[in-house]
Amino acid sequence: MRKLIEYDHLSIDGRMSGDAWWAGQQAVVPNDNHFAFQRQLLSSAVGIVLGRVTYEGFAQTWPTMTGDVADKINSLPKYVASTTLTETAWNAEVLTGDPVEAVARLKEAGDGTLVKYGNGAFSRALVEAGLLDELHLSVSPFVAGSGEALLEGLATTAMELTGVTDLGNGTVVLSYALSR
Fold first, then answer.
1. What pTM does this model have?
2. Beta pairing partners, 178
3. What is the mean pLDDT of each run of 10 residues along the chain (180 residues)?
4. Nearest-CA neighbor of 42 among 78, 88, 81, 94?
């Protein structure tokens, strides 16, 4: 069975969106440590899971990028959860039917790792369904003050801290295994 890992960027106050979040996130410049973490995260990946909004943003950006992380992301198949998207490009397919059930089928379809980027309602649904195995939170050194919280509205969900990675620019990645 495949493992499903989600990677998210957050402000130090746990926000993942909003104008103040974007302004703060732009001030945090990725460095070699960030790219090393992404290479490790993607090393056993057999596919990438995205919601529609994240897919559309990634599909505009990643195909124009170069380097080993971009090469890996661009080469992997993408599985997009959407009820409105009908056509894809960039080595992607829309998950048919209920997106949570489709991800469950993807997990059962083989070995390796599926990496999910993006957050929001789809992420919460995957946690609630018990499909998310690991959560890697890249916490950046700014306070957004407003915006959506990553896990807002979830019932109590136990997690075990499995690692802390200092990226060297004030950002740390907190890695958690979700308890079953």
1. 0.92
2. 159
3. 94 81 68 92 96 93 94 97 90 93 95 93 90 94 84 80 93 90
4. 78
